[in-house]
Design goal:
cell outer membrane, 46% helix, 10 strands, RagB/SusD family nutrient uptake outer membrane protein, mainly alpha, two-stranded antiparallel sheet, signal
């Protein structure tokens, strides 16, 4: 399996080069360079610094990505649990003392700082005589990772830190628009130095950053700015490269067969190395898992049930006649099915709407939620023999070619000119895989509906689209009332207490 090469590199580097793979940098150490006994003439050492940046990026906590996404109308927080602040956030009631807010902020800004430290280390390798072009490439990869994390943090909190140096005196708080422009400019700097291949075709770091990952991040930043021509230009270059294609099986895309496929421009990689015991680099997918199931592999464990596709999303998909995308995205319980059928418009449901997946796992009723996320589901029969933890060996998809196509289509429908075909072409590629009829004369509303259908429960894409477009009515659903003053989470109280820069900025802007 190709992903094991990448993970083995991480384990090797953690053992040989990094002092921080097992523990986060402490407050004093996080802005320090590495020890002076490193051989900066070593190309192997430079490679280790790069892989250290990837390790930092992949070490994402279970609470971070759900917090990005939970406010969208595609997903709800599972109730009746011990994370009331998470459920409150889903209902647009924010407590800046809730631990998840601080965890997201602190961990990802520590990651940004660590990646910046790796960049500074790489400059020392250049000074030590390592090939300058290679160092340019490695730095460009690290900057792309840093740009992506900064983009996601700014989507959540709005105005946040811009970090380009480990010198604390140079850290500033910037507006969201300024940060998005900075990210776009950073990608302009990195793209010429990055490899011109699909990430899945890299042999040194399979799935690693290439120029097309950076172009996708640039498109995402410009989408936030509503600079639709820049979005069309970046996504058009990806499309015209001919290096990407939609994976032919939407259901398997999010499972083991879809790992490092040519649809994925970025994914967080995990592996159990195909072995029943020993090293296992895994994400805690139990957060998304149903609390109660009868797995086809009896030993396979269930999870926590904290991430629930919304009734609004499910009914939207049923109304469209969706099949494979709905089956893939939602794990149904009998209780959830019965609740849908209380609405007379949905009393007669398709046969695939069942509590038994096509892989034989039975999703039993549980009190915390009516449904679970199918995009975070790994069939128990795809677990490595001897592994029993939910989702073990599954990668976490970050950026897909489908999102690139839909960004391109949206940009064109909002007035941009394109060089990679029409909006109809881009949307219909995606619809064709989903078994949906083709459209002609695609509008912006058509594209947003397609994004809802295709990208639900992925990285908060739906929520941040609605924020960008000011669609408060879409986010006011199932008894919730959304207003634009709720667009961003408040700064974590703990960070205001320890950061004079952030506290001063907060006081000046509130």
């Amino acid at each position: 399996m190709k992903s094991t090469i990448y993970i083995q590199c991480l384990l090797l580097v953690c053992g040989l080069y990094l002092t921080s793979c097992d523990n986060k940098l402490d407050e004093d150490a996080e802005l320090r360079s590495y020890q002076n006994d490193i051989d900066y003439a070593s190309e192997e050492g430079a490679y280790g610094a790069l892989v250290g940046a990837y390790e930092t990026f992949q070490d994402v906590g279970w609470e971070q990505i759900p917090l990005l996404a939970v406010r969208g109308d595609d997903v709800n927080a599972g109730g009746l649990g011990d994370q009331q602040g998470f459920a409150d956030t889903d209902n647009y009631t924010y407590d800046n003392n809730f631990w998840m807010y601080n965890s997201l902020w602190e961990n990802w800004f520590q990651d940004i700082t660590q990646i910046t430290s790796q960049i500074e280390q790489l400059e020392l390798y250049r000074d030590g005589g390592v090939n300058s072009s290679l160092i340019d490439q490695y730095i460009a990869e690290a900057k792309t990772l840093r740009g992506f994390i900064t983009l996601e943090l700014s989507r959540v909190f709005g105005d946040v830190y811009r970090i380009e140096s480990t010198d604390q005196s140079e850290i500033t708080v910037e507006t969201k628009d300024d940060l998005m422009q900075w990210i776009s400019d950073q990608m302009d700097e990195t793209i010429p130095d990055l490899l011109d291949v699909a990430p899945s075709n890299r042999t040194d770091i399979p799935g690693g950053i290439t120029k097309y990952t950076a172009l996708a991040v640039q498109a995402m930043a410009n989408l936030e700015l509503k600079n639709y021509q820049a979005v069309a230009d970046a996504t058009g270059e990806i499309i015209n490269s001919g290096k990407f294609e939609l994976y032919d099986d939407f259901y398997q895309l999010f499972k083991i067969p879809g790992k490092l496929c040519n649809e994925n421009l970025l994914e967080i990689q995990y592996s159990d190395f195909g072995q029943s015991s020993g090293d296992n680099v895994a994400h805690l997918f139990e957060f998304y898992a149903p609390q109660n199931w009868t797995a086809a592999v009896p030993e396979a464990t269930s999870g926590w049930g904290f991430y629930e596709p919304s009734f609004k999303y499910i009914k939207f998909m049923l109304d469209r006649g969706e099949t494979v995308r709905l089956e893939t995205s939602v794990l149904f319980t009998d209780r959830g099915i019965a609740e849908i059928q209380t609405d007379s418009d949905y009393s007669d449901l398709p046969d695939f709407v069942t509590n038994t997946t096509r892989d034989g796992d039975i999703i039993n009723d549980y009190s915390r939620a009516y449904f679970a996320s199918g995009k975070h589901y790994l069939p128990s029969i795809q677990l490595t023999e001897g592994r029993t933890t939910y989702g073990t060996n599954k990668n976490y998809t970050v950026i897909r070619y489908a999102e690139v196509l839909l960004m391109y289509a949206e940009a064109l429908t909002r007035g941009a000119s394109g060089t990679a075909g029409s909006a109809d072409d881009a949307v219909n590629l995606i619809r064709s895989r989903a078994g949906m009829p083709t459209l002609s004369g695609v509008t912006s509303d058509d594209v947003m509906d397609e994004k809802f259908a295709e990208l639900a429960m992925e990285w908060g894409i739906r929520y941040y689209d609605m924020i960008r477009l000011g669609e408060t009515s879409e986010l006011s659903y199932d008894g919730r009332t959304f207003t634009m003053d709720k667009a961003y989470l408040p700064y974590p109280l703990e960070q205001l207490d320890i950061s004079p820069i952030l506290d001063e900025y907060n006081n000046q802007n509130n």
